[in-house]
Amino acid sequence: MERKKTAGRRKIPLVKIEKHVDQYSTFSKRCSDLYKEGSELVRENDVDLGIVLTSPTDKTYAFVHPTSNAAIDRFMNLKTDFGDQIIVENSRNKVNQLNDRLNELDKREEIAK
């Protein structure tokens, strides 16, 4: 029996990427993956989440759910007022509806294939 010629899944050490072109492409890939993971975490666990990233070109990207004020207040253990609670709940409901719609469209696409 022949051995596999691929490396397969293996742990890649975290080292600084020296080439700027590679940094840009890796950042864009990882950034979108992180946003997807954040969305999934929010969806499955009903949490408040804030992610702030700085790209190699010093642009700042943020993913906050449900609102930046709600995530910061939760982080600082401040009580939110009733108006903010309503905004947070509406944001959660809208995201849940959109995720349900996206999942439905993904299923239709899989069936069509």
Assign the CATH superfamily: Transcription factor, MADS-box
Largest beta sheet: what is the strand line-up?
A: 1-2
Q: CATH top level?
A: Alpha Beta
Secondary-structure element order, N to C: HEEHH
Instruction: Give the beta-strand count.
Output: 2
How many separate domains make up the residues? Answer: 1
Shape: extended
- Biggest β-sheet: count, sense, barrel? 2 strands, antiparallel
Number of helices: 3
At the third CATH level, what is the topology name? SRF-like
Spatial extent as radius of gyration: 19 Å
Structural class: mainly alpha
Beta content comes to 5-15%
- Compute the average pLDDT: 81
Which parts are unreliable, with pLDDT below 50 for 5 consecutive residues or more?
none
User: In CATH terms, what is the architecture?
Assistant: 3-Layer(aba) Sandwich
**Helical amount:** 55-70%
**End-to-end distance, in Å?**
35 Å
What does it look like?
Strand 1 and strand 2 form a beta hairpin. This protein is mostly helical and 113 residues long. It has one domain: 3-Layer(aba) Sandwich (SRF-like).
Keywords summarizing the entry:
113 residues; mainly alpha; SRF-like
Q: Would you kindly provide a brief summary of this structure?
A:
With 113 residues, the chain is mainly alpha-helical. Helix content is 58%, strand content 11%.
List the helices and strands and how they pair.
Layout: H1 20-45, E1 49-54, E2 60-65, H2 68-75, H3 82-112
Antiparallel strand pairs: 1-2
